[in-house]
Amino acid sequence: MSDFINKLYKNQALFYKVFLFVLTSVLIVYLLPKGGKFKYDIPKGKPWQYENLYAPFDFAILKTDEEIAAERQDITRSHIPYYNFNTQTPEKVREDALEEVQNVFPDTTLNVYQTIIDEFVAETVDRIYEFGLLQESERLGPDQLVYLLKGNEASEIAYRRILKQGEIRGYLADEISNEGFSSFRTELLEVFFNSVEPNVTFNNDLTQKELQSKLNNISYTRGIIEQGSRIIAKGEVVEGNKYNILRSLKAEYESQVWSKSNYNWILLGYSVLVALALLMLLLFMRKYRIAIFENNVKVTFIFFNIIFMVMLTTLVVNFNIDYVYVVPLCILPLTLKAFFDARLGLFTHVITVLLLGFIVPNSYEYMFLQIIAGIVTILTVSELYKRANLFISVGQITLVYIIAYFAFTVIQEGDIDDMKPEVFLTFFLGGLATLFVQPLIYVYEKIFGMVSDMSLLELSDTNSRLLKELAEKAPGTFHHSLNVANLAEAAANEINANAMLARVGALYHDIGKMENPTYFTENQTTSVNSHDELSPKESAQIIIEHVIKGIEVAKKNNLPDRVIDFIRTHHGTSTVYYFYKKEKEANENASPEDFRYPGPIPFSKETAILMMCDSVEAASKSLKEPTSVLIDNFVEKIINKQMEEGQFLNSNITFKEIQMVKKILKRKLKNIYHLRIEYPE
């Protein structure tokens, strides 16, 4: 049992990767659509390159979007609106009008003409309200049919038969004139104007309800293709009705409700393909990025980003497929490049795009556009912490999307008439969303404890609190750190290492000297040496302790682990040679282990560069009358000694790169000491 526990403990990192691999695969498969995948590409406007295709089952032909839009427009145009007719208004108006006759006409007139006037008024009111009086302004054509609702009954009439309030004056004038009541025109108009009121209103709710019901009943299919029918022959051009039938077959195939057995097989297929893609990513890291592969936090970070992009794309596709390019997929390579390197960023981006090909329609077009955009992202964004670079890169990414989409449309349609301008807007919005990468990187740094170039830029600010404290307490050390930072940055640039990381590591590598600054020669301003009162062993311990104290100060001030690595490794396992030699003179049996730094030795190119630059810069202060030859020999001697001690064995730096670093250090030191070329006599 104990052996099993020991094996489990030793292989816990491997078990975690297996768990992460399985969990990521399950989550991605869960997010993928579970229908069957149509196995043919449909090349619109091109010859059918496969064998003759026959219908595997009965299916309906889908109408095109244009056909459905035209049908909806026809229904909307021909829809008959509803109007409410108030049946109580005519009776009320008749009574009010007859009362108004008594009030408006003088008694002398009524004594003679009351009967015929009352009859005329009553008959006119009946004619006005035969189809009702509408207050609204004219909104329909005169021949448009409408439904007039009287109670529970609806009658279909022409819209022009409903009297409009704007027409009432002319209508009444004609009626008065035609019936021979012109002599009473003024009085009769006053009677009608004081009593007549609208009784027809537009019933918007019922009209819209009926219209929506008709729109909902639109059939999205036309005709049936029977099983066994030939759909298309090899070599036929995919266009017109052939294209619609193929598109219908694909939609039917991918939307079928599969039996449990078929569903399980589809699930197995998806699982194998997703697992295979993720396995390729793990194998790539194990082969070419072993340091990342062995770091479970970094592997988790990469897999989390893949899941995040798949989930985001799935949500957008489910919401509206037209917005699929709004998803800022180029954030993925940008983020991974900021934390790791361009090659890993691009490889992960390609794997993610391959997985997303299962989700989106027109998968080939989508994958082509996204892979090209990812390559442009990797090639254009060199320094993410410079805002101008990011904006320029976003513009280039958007331009590539537009150009590629234009080319695909021309290939598929044969012209540009069917190009959708709104797609360009989605490219623009996706480009703007890519700018979110900077705050996202900040969030990732806090969650996963990693450091990007943007954080390194902030740390390189010499006005930061910690570096200001170093400048006050140990000004000599601060000046030494600045010189080392300049040397390390130049050397890193020469061998294509991370120059920003090397510079930041150099600025902070000696912060442990703030504890006892006067025990280090660069901070001694008087002739009194603090080591004179100590034994060589005690002096060596104080010197060695600046590494341990530096790590403590760095952790207290929340410096990233990548920066702390420079503090930990900048002396490797070398010895404090001066005090060891001094102890050796007094005691021949002195052990070098008592004077040795605890290590570890450098384990990256950047930390190896710092070790070389730190040793060379510190020792260069001892040169009394430096010459070009003396500096060359001096640099060779120091770095060769470090190589002999095996200080660079774990740092993945080549002999050629070490020679390039030597060359840079020699040139920089000569510039510092203002040496001229030595001409022969």
From TrEMBL:
UniProt-listed InterPro entries: HD/PDEase_dom, HD_domain, HDIG_dom, Metal-dep_PHydrolase_7TM_extra, Metal-dep_PHydrolase_7TM_intra, PgpH_phosphodiesterase
Keyword annotations: Membrane, Transmembrane, Transmembrane helix
Residue ranges constituting the HD domain according to the UniProt record: 477-619
Entry's transmembrane regions: 14-32, 265-285, 297-317, 344-360, 366-385, 390-411, 423-444
Pfam families in the record: 7TM-7TMR_HD, 7TMR-HDED, HD
PANTHER family: CYCLIC-DI-AMP PHOSPHODIESTERASE PGPH
NCBIfam families attached to this UniProt entry: HDIG (TIGR00277)
Name this polypeptide is given: HDIG domain-containing protein
Organism the protein comes from: Christiangramia lutea
